[in-house]
Amino acid sequence: MKPAGLGHEISPREAWKLFGIMAEFFEATERLQGIRPAVSMFGSARVKEGSAYYKLAEETARLLSDAGFAIVSGGGPGVMEATNKGAFHGNGLAVGLNIDLPHEQASNRFQHISLRFKHFFARKVMFAKFATAFVVMPGGYGTLDELFEALTLVQTGKTRQMPIILVHEPFWRGLIDWCKSRLIEEGMIDASDIGLVQVCNEPKEVVDAIFAFYEKRGFEPSPAEREVMLNL
């Protein structure tokens, strides 16, 4: 007896959904192809303009933009807006990868390139595909999801080695301590894996850390790294 579900044909609606997913990947890849070197920045949508975290994100993005990086954010409010705003008023491109949500996310106005996604997974691929570094500001579940996605991709070799920088040590201290006391002590990750993240407090530290990482190798991916990123 054949198990239920085997031999089920793809419905026209499911087929069109697949084409829609392909279209998201195609449009985003085409529009973002020339933005390297780029830094993907993550952080809370709930942070208010004028708050300490908002100002920290804006200044960090502005310095990175003036240093020649395109800045990629989630395109929404809070830290995402601060990030795009800093880049928009700097020398680099401000890129927003917006997501359609049940309670629709409003796009911020500080975007030279703005894309909309229906699917979280397609959007997350684009954060990683063009990144030279990941900069993670304080945030909630979405920010943690993006942080651990970046760590997993680098740890498993599914993307090239690159800086993953947590900004504002007091916010991240508990998580780092937990990773050391639980994940490392109980053998869930190697001791060296904690070295995949750096912690910075000041915007200039973030810029310096990224340049220090690439000082001897340059920002251009090697042929082997290009192959890895092609298969992301």
Compute the gyration radius: what is it? 19 Å
The separation of the N and C termini measures 38 Å
Give the fraction of residues assigned to helices: 40-55%
Q: How many H/I helices?
A: 8
- Largest β sheet strand count, sense and barrel closure: 7 strands, parallel
Oligomeric grouping of the chains? single chain
Work out the count of structural domains. 1
Task: Catalogue the unreliable spans.
Answer: none
CATH topology: Rossmann fold
The strand order across the widest sheet is 4-3-2-1-5-6-7
Shape: globular
Sheet-strand content, in percent, reads: 5-15%
How would you describe the overall organization of this protein?
The protein is built from eight helices and seven strands. Helix 3 (79-88) links the parallel strand 2 (70-73) and strand 3. The model has no long low-confidence stretch (mean pLDDT 92). Helix content is 46%, strand content 15%. The longest helix has 21 residues, at 12-32. It is globular. With 232 residues, the chain is an alpha/beta fold. It has a seven-stranded parallel β-sheet with strand order 4-3-2-1-5-6-7, sandwiched between helices.
Layout of strands and helices, then pairs:
Elements: H1 12-32, E1 38-42, H2 52-66, E2 70-73, H3 79-88, E3 94-99, E4 113-117, H4 120-129, E5 131-136, H5 141-155, E6 164-167, H6 169-184, E7 197-200, H7 203-214, H8 223-230
Parallel strand pairs: 1-2, 1-5, 2-3, 3-4, 5-6, 6-7
Helix pairs in contact: 2-3, 2-7
